[in-house]
Amino acid sequence: AALAPSCARLGRAGPRMTRATVLLAAAALAVACAAVADYDSAARDLSGERETKVHALNEENFERLTQAATGATTGPWLVAFCNAVDYECRRLKRLMPKVATTLVEESEERGRIPANVALVDVEESPWLAKRFGLSHVPAVLFFQLGVMYYYQSSSYTAEKLVNFAQSGYRSAGHSHVPPEPHVADSHERTFLIACAVVALMSGILYVVDLLLQRSRSAKRKLKAR
């Protein structure tokens, strides 16, 4: 008999807790679907880059794809830093697919792993230019085993760039790749937003439930009087 009031209270709280659980589950599912869609979109973009053999790098994916500061586990990278306005930048961009194709063909003939070829738009990713100390564009860097080598010629031709990526970098100026301060990418931001949304909804539901309990308690006290 003593347990009856407690059981009754649990029974009344049950529907509220069920509704709260359903709302939280729906919110988490919606955010998860958004995260999956974002991941699929990124995967399709990367797949397209592989087909052209020239990767588009930016502040979000640079370190994840190149592993430049951690020992280049994804292989060497020849990266051109450009903008959309400069004439030499536009000419260099047109050369990069030919450079990538030549590196693949010649590496296959020699039984070697070709260097990855990529472009960075410094207007969209100014932090990368700052990270690598670039004061002008176009600029070409070769990344291998945690070291970056500077292409120091002012002449940009497919032949010279291929030679630089194959062996010319060895006699070029170089320095260690500076470490990357952690910057949350789009997937991490989506996850953090999901956590924040779930936490916020949990807090709101808790406060609403608490207010309802106090309201019912006050009504019971008034009736008792």
From TrEMBL:
Transmembrane segments: 191-212
Keyword Magnesium: no
Signal peptide: 1-34
Record keywords: Membrane, Signal, Transmembrane, Transmembrane helix
Keyword Repeat among UniProt keywords: no
Highest rank taxon of the organism: Eukaryota
PANTHER family found in the cross-reference section: GH08893P (PTHR19991:SF2), L 2 01289 (PTHR19991)
Protein name per UniProt: Thioredoxin domain-containing protein
Protein source organism: Diacronema lutheri
